Amino acid sequence: MYDDGPGGAIPAAGRDNHQCVLGSGNQGVAVKALQKSLRDCTKQSISVDGSYGPETRQAVTNVQRKAGLAQDGVYGPKTARDALELRPVLPHVPFRAVRMTMKTLTRVATAVAALPLLAAATLASAAPVAAAPKGIADCPYPYVCLYNAQTKKKVAQFKDITSGYQPVKNNSYYVRNTRYDDVVHFRHFSSYVCIAPRVSTDIPVTNGIKIRSEAKCR
To answer: Which of 46, 94, 137, 187 could serve as 208's disulfide partner, Cβ 3.0–4.6 Å?
Structure first.
């Protein structure tokens, strides 16, 4: 039983009890539960305010019409059983909501099971750049280091992200990019050469370098 305020007690519809009658003028938690069920189960846009007014009456009439019942706008035993199938009305958990909850739980369980793989992938992607080849000076994170292509001596290092190219001596280089999430563009005539994060490689003749905040070359 639910206290419906000044109007008295309104019995809730249960599995074996549908003797719940609500109509215009009723107010309280039972009406609020009915409104929520109408909104969630029948997808009608009504207020859940606990007041059985014209809006709620019309919503009930709509479901009665679809169920082939007398359209009096009153929530009674037949409407509860044949139109709304609310068991119980208060509290009411629509089957659709239960189904969505199960889907959500399944997705969460799948995501949790994948966490070790995600963690391993993250660690792998964050691994530092490979050690410098023998005879080449190390390049500390987060620098991009340039080495003379012939002698393999370090000639410059950069770490600032810029909108334009920073000048370098017109030459070919061996490059080490130690950054995790930034690519490096080297100006090459009217185009550019892109070096991905954590990559060491030789590049053709260039006279400008630009570090960009992008995870991969495009």
So the answer is: 187
Token digits of residue 51: 């007041």
The residues pairing with 173 across neighbouring beta strands, listed in sequence order, are 148, 203
Token reading at 40: 């969630």
Its pTM surpasses 0.85: no
Question: Under 8 Å CB-to-CB from 163, ≥6 apart: which residues?
Answer: 210
- Identify residue 65 by its one-letter amino acid code: R
Strands (E), the chain: 2-3, 9-10, 144-148, 154-158, 166-177, 183-188, 191-195, 200-212
The distance from CA 156 to its chain's CA centroid, rounded to whole angstroms, is 43
pLDDT in tens, 117-146: 544 444 444 445 566 677 788 899 999 999
Beta bridge partners of 180: none
pLDDT, tens digit (0-9, with 9 covering 90-100), for 20-72:
688 899 998 888 888 988 888 888 889 999 999 999 999 999 998 988 888 99
**Closest by alpha carbon to 175, among 197, 153, 200?**
200
List CB contacts of 43: < 8 A, sequence separation 6 or more.
none
What contacts 24+ positions apart, CB below 8 Å, involve 155-161? 158/209, 158/211, 159/211, 160/211, 161/211, 161/212, 161/213
